[in-house]
Amino acid sequence: MLHGLTGWHLLIVLAVILLLFGAAKLPALAQSLGQSARVFKGEMKAMKADETPADPGPPPSSGPAVPPAGPTSAP
């Protein structure tokens, strides 16, 4: 994944980020990134909870569904 990246490359990337955003905005940027990660993690947990059924319901019957016999009226 990080083919050939060394410490110098990461240092240059950090310097570019510092120049683009400025030192004053970096804490706010990090806080926003952390909040986004927490929201994403919470949504993933909610999706997993929605996928698992809480109440599986009654077990299926082994035979065909037959209505109960009621009183019959003969004409």
In words, what does this structure look like?
This protein starts with 6 loop residues before the first helix and ends in a 24-residue tail after the last helix. The chain has helices spanning 7-21, 26-51. Helices cover 55% and strands 0% of the residues. The protein has 2 helices and no strands. With 75 residues, the protein is mainly alpha-helical.
Structure in a nutshell:
The protein is mainly alpha-helical. The protein is built from two helices and no strands. The longest helix has 26 residues.
What is the topological layout?
Layout: H1 7-21, H2 26-51
Distance between the termini: 84 Å
Kindly report the average pLDDT value.
79
Number of separate helices: 2
Helix percent band: 40-55%
Question: What is the N-to-C order of secondary-structure elements (H for helix, E for strand)?
Answer: HH
- Regions with pLDDT < 50 over 5+ consecutive residues? none
Radius of gyration: 31 Å
- Write down how many β-strands occur, each being a DSSP E stretch of 2 or more residues: 0
Strand content: under 5%
Shape: rod-shaped
Classify the secondary structure makeup into a structural class: mainly alpha
Biggest sheet overview: none
Key structural traits:
55% helix; mainly alpha; 2 helices; 75 residues
